[in-house]
Write a structure and sequence with these properties.
Blueprint: E1 7-16, E2 25-32, E3 35-37, E4 47-59, E5 66-67, E6 70-73, E7 85-88, E8 91-94, E9 96-98, E10 106-107, E11 114-115, E12 117-118, E13 121-122, E14 129-140, E15 149-160
Parallel strand pairs: 1-15, 10-11
Antiparallel strand pairs: 1-3, 2-4, 4-14, 5-13, 6-12, 6-15, 7-8, 9-14
Length: 161
């Protein structure tokens, strides 16, 4: 069996924004993916890690003052957000991303069993910019026995508003 320290798990977030013409607000997103660190394949407890997104919206012109950004996440390597996995070459380690601390709301694009995140912001003349920081909860099931290596996945985060 490989040593526990030979596993390093990372989830990278690639952030994208849709083009919105004649918008009353401009929104941006920044974030960091969960960094699981070393995976202990002997532990009966799942490996957990957190990341975060920050969504900032700024009022532009005299348009509407309420904006409702929604953030979604791609499936990554697995092709399905319902059952994501990280890769190290051809080796697989299962994990997923969640919107809640109970790990019941899988973060994805809103299809199937996945959900998107969202909020509503009221942008006023005196307070034209607002931000919200949202945690990302990552979890890798216990007792997987993958080959030693550095595992990773790339998730594309899209914000629509």
């Amino acid at each position: 069996m490989p040593p526990v320290s030979s596993y390093l798990l990372r989830v990278a977030l690639c952030l994208s924004l849709p083009l919105t013409l004649n918008a009353a607000a401009i929104c941006t997103v920044t974030g960091t993916g969960p960094a699981f660190g070393n995976y202990n394949f002997l532990s009966a407890a799942p490996s957990v890690a957190n990341g975060q997104l920050t969504v900032s919206c700024t009022r532009v012109g005299r348009g509407r003052s309420t904006v409702a950004p929604v953030w979604s996440a791609s499936a990554g390597n697995s092709g399905t957000a319902a059952a994501r996995h990280m890769l190290s070459g051809v080796n697989i380690l299962n994990y997923n991303l969640y919107l809640d601390t109970a790990y019941t709301q899988i973060w994805g694009d809103g299809t199937g069993v996945t959900r998107t995140g969202g909020t509503s912001m009221r942008l006023r003349r005196r307070n034209p910019t607002q931000s919200v920081t949202v945690p990302i909860y990552g979890r890798a099931p216990a007792l997987q026995n993958p080959a030693a290596g550095v595992y990773g996945d790339t998730i594309v985060v899209t914000i629509t508003y």
